[in-house]
Here is the input.
Amino acid sequence: MDNPQQLRYSKEHEWLSAAEDGVSTVGITEHAANALGDVVFVQLPEVGATVTAGESCGELESTKSVSDLYAPVDGEITEVNEDVASDPSLVNSAPFEGGWLFKVKITGEPEDLLTADEYTAFTAG
Amino acid sequence: MTEAPRRTALDATHRALGATMTDFAGWDMPLRYSSERDEHVAVRTRAGLFDLSHMGEITVTGPRAADLLDYALVGNIGGVATGRARYTMICAPDGGILDDLIVYRLADQEYMVVANASNAQVVLDALTERAGGFDAAIRDDRDAYALIAVQGPESPGILKGLTDADLDGLKYYAGLPGKVAGVDALIARTGYTGEDGFELFVRPADAVALWEALTEAGASVGLVPCGLSCRDTLRLEAGMPLYGHELTSATTPFDAGLGRVVKFDKTTNGGDFVGRAALAQAAERAETAPPRKLVGLIAEGRRVPRAGYPVVAADGTVIGEVTSGAPSPTLGKPIAIAYVDAAHAAPGTEGVRVDIRGSHEPYEVVALPFYKRQK
Here is the structure.
C-alpha cells in the first residue's frame, strides 16, 4: 500500500496533513485500517476539546476489537468528520481521504513524527 | 507457547488470496480475506468457503466403541445410527465441560469424534484414559484430515455439481462417504453458521484440488472464501456456544442452557458415565435455583460489548458477564451472549446494561438465538 508522501505519520498509525493556517487534518493509515478490519463505530473527540500528542482522544471499534484513537499532536479540535461518524466503513474504504477523522489546530508537535518513507519502513519491520 | 504455529494444507492458497492470517489455538489460520462483514453476508445470502483443518479428529473403533463413547461422553452415542452425527459434550467428573464435540458414526464399530482445535489433546487424553477396560481403540487422526466447509443457501447447488452423492437424502447432522470433484470425502451436513451447509473431511493432499473445484463451481453464485472472523459472528448470531467463552471447565452443560445433551437414561455401562453424579446435581440446581442463565443481549447504542465486560443493573450492581460480543451484520446492531443472574435473565427485563469501559450502555434481554434461518 502507498502512504501519501505529503503526509506525516505517528507511530500509533495516525496520519497528519500539512497545516493550513495552523490546522491539520488527522486520520488513521491504511495499514491501521487493514489491521483493524471492518470499523463499525468511531468515537471522535468533541469540537473544542484540547488533545495531547500520544494520548487517547477517541475510540475505533471493529468486528474483533476496540482500539484507542491517539492524537498525533497537541492542539484543539476544530472539526470532526460527521460522515465517518454515521458511516464508519469510510475508514476502511478511504482512510486517507473521505475517512479522515478530525481537524486540529496545532499548539505543539512531538519530535518523532515520521515521513511517508519512514512510516513505510516502520510498518514493514 | 514457543512452537511455530502449524499450517494447514491450504496455507499457500490462503496467502495467494491475500488472507489476513491469525494464530488460533496454535494454528496459523485465515482471519479474513477481505471485509469480514461482506464474508458474513455472503454466507447468509449466498455461500462461503472455509478452511477448518485445525479441528481435531479422533477415530474410535472396535466392538465396544459405542459403549466407550457412552461412558466417556454425556450423550447417547450408541443410539446414533450409522451415517448420522450428534452434537455432544465431554465433561470432567465434576461436571465441568472439557469440550463440545460432533460425533459421526461412520460404521457400526467406527466413530469420528471432532473436537475443537484448542481442546483436541485434552479430548484425546481423556478418551484414552476412559477407554481402559473397553475393547475399543482410539486413534489420533488430527493429521489425517483437512476440513473444508461450504456454508450458505447456495451450498447444496454448488456441491451437487461436483458429486454423485445423494445430497437430497443427506439430512442435517448426517454424513456419508462419497467423491466430491473426484476426491474421496466424508460429506457431512453440519456447520457452525446457522445456515444450511456441508463439511467435507478429505485427505490433506486433496485439499487444494477440492478448494479450487469448489471455488470454481461457486463463482457464478457468489461463493467467497471466508475466515474465522465471520465464522465467529455467524455462530454468535445463531446463538451457538464457543468453547472458552460460553463453555468452560467451570460450567456444566446445564449452566449453559444445553442440559438436553446430557442423557441420564442411557442403559449402557449400567447407566454410568463420567460426570453423571455431578451433572444430576447440576440439572437439579438449574431446575430449582439457577445461579445464572445464558441470554442474548441486543444493544440500543452502537458501542460493542466484548467478552469479559460486566453486565450491570440500573443501580450499577454487577449481575453478569458478557461471554461473546460483536457487531451483528444481520441485525445491524451490537449483540452479545452473557451469563446473567436468573432474576434479570427473562427476555424483556428492564434496566439491563453492559459496562463498556466505564459507560453503562442499555441492552435488551432476548432469548437465543438472534438469527434463525427460514427453511
Chain B has eight helices and 20 strands.
